[in-house]
UniProtKB/TrEMBL annotation:
InterPro entries: cNMP-bd_dom (IPR000595), cNMP-bd_dom_sf (IPR018490), RmlC-like_jellyroll (IPR014710). Coiled coil: none annotated. Residues 29-114 form the Cyclic nucleotide-binding domain. The lineage of its organism: Bacteria, Pseudomonadati, Bacteroidota, Cytophagia, Cytophagales. It comes from the Bacteria. This is Crp/Fnr family transcriptional regulator. It holds the Pfam family cNMP_binding.
Length: 188
């Protein structure tokens, strides 16, 4: 739980009272590898912080699912559009390893907003973080080659990337597994 406080306090100052209210709503939960955290067709009820592990976002397809995001430890994870709108998600979120999350329900977040002076700042900060990652991904898809996207992913999380199946990485960078194999041969 202290990881979350450090994460916030890198940019904002939390009083002990605000932290007490916020942290009292957090629930620590462990999930096994390949556990679906959010199913397509369901509403996202949690804003979570990854203590350990990693997850992927994907659109389930009959043959090959379409992976469009990875989230690693010390970051927020949520089907945030569904969380905010209270509408069903078109995609799924799945753990790629044993994963420990600190979770906050939608209703608990609303209470934090109303009960603390810093609640809205915390919510805004988490929202901005998720938005910036989404924008970065969109710009990457528009401006970079698949090889550049692969290299970026490798630079950002090299130790974790080794644990992600290549078919998910290929889907994420927008190529077939065979094309990813060619990219990897050029790089190494």
């Amino acid at each position: 739980m202290e990881q979350i406080r450090k994460y916030f306090e890198s940019t904002i100052k939390l009083t002990d009272q605000d932290w007490k209210v916020f942290s009292s709503k957090l629930v620590r939960k462990e999930f096994p590898k390949k556990h679906v955290l959010l199913n397509a067709g369901h509403v996202e009820n949690y804003l979570s912080f990854i203590e350990t592990g990693m997850v992927r976002f994907y659109i389930p397809k009959m043959e090959n699912s379409l992976t469009f995001a990875f989230v690693f430890e010390n970051n927020f994870v949520s089907g945030y559009d569904s969380f905010l709108t209270r509408k069903v998600s078109d995609y799924q979120i799945e753990t790629l390893s044993k994963t420990t999350l600190w979770r906050l329900t939608y209703n608990d977040l609303q209470e934090i907003y109303s009960e603390t002076g810093i609640g809205n700042t915390i919510g805004r900060y988490a929202s901005e973080d998720l938005f910036l990652k989404k924008s970065k991904r969109e710009l990457s898809l528009l401006n970079e080659t698949a090889e550049q996207r692969y290299r970026n992913l490798f630079v950002e999380q090299p130790h974790l990337l080794q644990h992600i199946p290549l078919k998910y990485i290929a889907s994420y960078i927008g190529v077939t597994p065979q094309a990813l194999s060619r990219i990897r041969k050029r790089i190494y």
